Amino acid sequence: MSETTHAMSTSPSAQVSVLGLGMMGSALAGAFLDAGHRVTVWNRSPAKAGPLVARGAVPAGSAAEAVAASPLVVLCLLSNDNVDELLAALPEELAGKTLVNLTNGTPTQARTLSAWAVKQGAQYVDGGIMAVPQMIAGPDAYVFYSGDEAAYETHRATLAALGGTKWTGSDPGLAALHDLGLLTGMYGMFVGVIQALALVRTENISAEAYSELLVPWVTAMLGIVPGIARDLDSGQHVTDVSSLAVNQAAFPNFLTTFRDQGVSTELFEPFQVILDRAIAAGHAGDGLSRLADLLTVR
Length: 298
Ligand code: FVH
Hints:
By secondary structure, this protein is an alpha/beta fold. The chain has helices at residues 23-34, 50-54, 63-69, 80-88, 107-119, 149-159, 174-200, 207-221, 225-234, 244-261, 269-280, 289-295, and strands spanning 2-4, 15-19, 38-42, 58-59, 72-75, 98-101, 123-130, 142-147, 164-169. Strands 1-9-8-7-6-5-2-3-4 form a nine-stranded mixed β-sheet, with helices on both faces. It binds ligand FVH.
């Protein structure tokens, strides 16, 4: 993966249009303005353009006008269904444009959108933003990109105003795959944290106080992730931490305790199912990496 880790403040002034000025789109447009670019903005509800126009952005009267205004067109709508609908209404304007779609979506949607955009004579780059709006242009923000590499390289310095740029490959679906992979890890962490807080508050333990124990614990446990990943890559599902048999033996204690304490088990039952499947398939001595293998259905 090629990457730049920080915005290139020295990039020459460029022209960029931003379509979609929700919380994220407004942050993106603001970052382009701060980097000194000429920014044209459009939003379905025009009022959201106001603060950006006050900072120097050019308001477009329509999505077509916004696309026509710049060689680089950044899209950040709620969903790719919205992007499909918007672009389908202005196919003539797209020829020769580079579309950078930073709307959250699936790899399949990105591939479909890319194929359609190329038919209209556009270049398509998909992106996955790894930041919340407040982080945009800051040191920890970055964006995964994939699709038309030449178009990406042409506009990379401009895109770097948003944060680091990470190129994931010419398959347009790869940025979304990387994005959703990281978000999967995040949601898995949230599932555990929410369940833990629900459990301890049944005994009137302050969630805030307990989080002081929870955060360092979860952080320390993340240290075993590289080992799990190495085992998965090598196919050697060994463990010097705890075997699947040990995990399977302990796991009913969690489900029983949740029930005893009046907490739903709905988020955790699936983990018991896959532990049972692993043991039944003869993997009792293996480590957690085996579960990733068992989850792969194709
Ligand atoms: N906010 C975040 O933290 C995350 C971080 C990672 C990336 N996501 C994705 O970014 C996309 C936009 O998210 P957002 O936070 O800007 O969302 P909203 O503030 O709700 O703005 C949504 C914009 O989409 C426009 N829109 C909705 N439907 C349509 C449509 N049919 N046609 C045209 N535009 C549409 C909406 O317009 P309006 O309601 O103001 O008229 C907003 O501009 C999203 O994919 C996140 O998953 C953000």
